[in-house]
Design goal:
alpha+beta; 674 residues; four-stranded antiparallel beta sheet; 18 strands; four-stranded mixed beta sheet
Length: 674
């Protein structure tokens, strides 16, 4: 269960004995969120006293280098524990507020110039604030009136014509979350706000422990609106507890009350506990866990998304597909021990995950390779842990989410072996494959990550299932990759796009390398798919003219040798006629090249045309041609030209586009042509 995993992730953070109050507030609030940084430019502190009220205007941070950038003071921002609304209308009061500290959007800021207008915006927030909820409605209305009045009286001091965002804090001595001290405090649990305006020399502080408890209480109360039970068994601890609520949490909308799927039609609006019951301690861990996941989530780049979700059956369709036309997808790695362990040790492992690429080590799991998640790592762990990779799309701030895939129970050692295979491919074998086709050796987007490799081999509809298969040590097949490659090669052959055809073959043989190493290293099977390097012996036999019928008993080898044969013939034919033999004689206008066409319009006519044009091709050609023609007859009897058409065509273009005449033969053919 995803919720249980989130609780297990959050438990070490919640139970970490050395985690300071400031850090806990950073975890449980949005003081570090990029969405909230501009609010700290205009912080309004209304100090309510026994004999009068005062307003302070401060900026918590400083302007950055850019025109609109702002750098929040991380040391003081925790004194203002704000919560960014997720879903719904942010201009309306939402959820429960742990402290009278509210985000002010532009309409709120403008409304401060009109007491009655701002009163209507503030009152609903006060009614939903921990501390004020225990007071009578008359007292709450009085607070709203006093705050609105002082803001109206001083609005010209801070309001401008430009768009403004801000934070409003109401410092009310009656609330236990606030402290007023005669001097500066060294207690790390007491968070300095500013000097008092009503009593100069005294300092205003936020009681960090009270604020934290208020945050937990606020979230727990918020969840109880969708279901609450007393003396019930928690789903997560399997123990009876004083009070349980639903798992719903507006800071991370995995289970949104606007969704229909997770909720039974037989439940009432406040009966979500019929599905999942969570106790307060587990819910606190859940809060920490959701915040941690938000910190480590990584958006997949547009380049990766294009490789993952572009159609693979058409090169033209992919070419004109814009990188920005795909919905943004986020990836999240979760590492869980098989057995619960020391919270502090586990918490340190979490901190390591938060580091960026500057701290990459060779032994780490690089999720850019494994999952397409840039600048994301997981420290190398023993197989006493399991890795879960979660992908989702949508907008958390609007409560619109869609979980694309959850790949659970990945064994770290398996993931590390897969990573090593991709590294070997990128660092060494890719360049060798490109060299065979006389292409520039350079990075290749299609093999930059596991999702890209699998998507280009099997298609976008199979990305998640094949990733699951690879990371769970399940077998992969080659047939779909061969079929897709053959279609793309045929499409480009009609357009004579030979450079692009070579790129397709570079990917195909890169995937074949990956598949063979996967079978060998992870599945402990023998290599059963021919790689480009495996054709070397056949090429040598071809140039020696020693290819026998026994060598041509499968469609793949017959296709490869046919490609070598027709390319050698085409070179000589071009020198005599100035025309491309395959295009001029073999391919019919507007049709797709087939094995039968290569046989009947290609190889079968080579001897006749060689004599007609007096080509005098080297001896190896004639020796191999005879065996190839016999091979076609045998293949036709066994129906291989139809049943294994894609394998034949992929191998044919491999031989055709990789053919290089040796110097001796080249000299013979040039002299003969002269």
């Amino acid at each position: 269960m995803l919720a249980e995993s989130i609780i297990r992730i959050g438990r070490p953070i919640a139970n970490s004995p050395d985690l300071p109050v400031k850090e806990r507030i950073r975890w449980l609030t949005d003081v570090e969120s990029e969405n909230c940084k501009n609010f700290f430019q205009n912080v309004l502190i209304v100090e309510l006293g026994n004999v009068g009220d005062a307003l302070s205007y401060v900026t918590v941070g400083k302007a950055g280098e850019g025109k609109k950038s702002f750098i929040v003071d991380a040391n003081q921002s925790t004194s203002f524990p704000i919560l960014y609304p997720n879903g719904g209308n942010p201009l309306k009061a939402q959820g429960v507020y742990p402290v009278p500290c509210y985000l002010m959007y532009e309409p709120h800021m403008k409304a401060m110039a009109e007491k009655e207008q701002f009163y209507q915006a503030l009152l609903p927030r006060l009614k939903k604030t921990v501390g004020y909820m225990k007071l009578g409605i008359e007292e709450i209305e009085a607070v709203a009136g006093r705050v609105s009045e002082i803001l109206e009286a001083h609005h010209t001091d801070f309001l401008t014509e430009e768009k403004q965002l801000g934070i409003l804090m109401i410092y009310d001595e009656r609330l236990p979350v606030y402290l007023k001290l005669s001097g500066k405090s060294d207690n790390p649990d007491e968070l300095w706000i500013r000097e008092s305006r009503l009593e100069p020399g005294k300092q205003l502080y936020l009681n960090g422990r009270e604020a934290l408890q208020g945050i937990i209480d606020a979230k727990f109360d918020e969840a109880s609106t969708l279901g609450k039970e007393h003396n019930a068994v928690s789903t997560f601890t399997n123990q009876k507890t004083e009070e349980v609520v639903s798992i719903y949490n507006k800071s991370w909308l995995w289970l949104s009350p606007t969704w229909e799927m997770p909720k039974s039609i037989y439940w009432g609006k406040d009966e979500w506990t019929k599905g999942i019951k969570v106790d307060k301690k587990s819910y606190e861990s859940y809060l920490y866990g959701t915040q941690f996941l938000k910190k480590i989530q990584v958006p997949l780049s547009n380049t990766v998304l294009k490789e993952m979700f572009s159609p693979i059956s058409s090169v033209e369709a992919k070419k004109y597909m814009r990188a920005g036309s795909f919905e943004q997808i986020f990836g999240i790695p979760m590492v869980l021990p098989l057995l619960d362990e020391d919270s502090e040790q586990y918490y340190q492992k979490f901190l390591r995950i938060l580091r960026t690429n500057q701290d990459l080590k060779e032994e780490d799991l690089h999720l850019e390779l494994l999952a397409g998640m840039k600048q994301s790592i997981v420290p190398r762990s023993s197989d006493h842990y399991r890795l879960t990779i979660l992908y989702y799309s949508g907008d958390l701030s609007r409560g619109s989410m869609h979980i694309r895939a959850v790949i659970e129970d990945v064994i770290p050692s398996v993931a590390y072996e897969v990573q090593n295979i991709i590294k070997q491919l990128r660092r060494r074998h890719l360049g060798q494959i490109q060299a065979v086709f006389e292409l520039e050796q350079r990075p290749f987007f299609r093999v930059e990550s596991l999702p890209s490799i699998l998507a280009n081999a099997y298609g976008p509809g199979y990305v998640w299932s094949t990733m699951q298969a690879v990371l769970h040590r399940e077998p992969l097949t080659l047939e779909r990759a061969v079929s897709a490659t053959a279609k793309r090669l045929n499409e480009m052959a009609n357009k004579e796009s030979y450079w692009e055809m070579k790129q397709e073959l570079v990917f195909f043989y890169s995937f074949v390398f990956f598949l063979n190493r996967y079978n060998e290293k992870i599945l402990a099977k023998g290599k059963d798919v021919k790689e480009l390097a495996d054709w070397k012996a056949m090429i040598e036999k071809y140039h020696a003219g020693s290819v026998e019928l026994e060598d041509l008993q499968n469609a793949e080898t017959l296709g490869f040798v046919s490609g070598l044969l027709l390319k050698q013939f085409s070179n000589s034919y071009y020198k005599k006629t100035g025309k491309d033999y395959v295009k001029h004689r073999v391919m019919k206008f507007g049709s797709k090249l087939t094995p039968e066409m290569i046989w009947k319009y290609g190889t079968l006519r080579c001897e006749e045309l060689a004599q007609q044009w007096d080509l005098n091709i080297s001896k190896n050609f004639h020796a191999v041609l005879a065996q190839v023609l016999l091979g076609f007859i045998e293949a036709d009897k066994e129906n291989l030209l139809i049943s294994q058409k894609d394998a034949f065509m992929t191998a044919f273009w491999s031989g055709y586009l990789s053919y290089k005449s040796n110097k001796k033969q080249e000299g013979e053919e040039i002299n003969a042509g002269a």
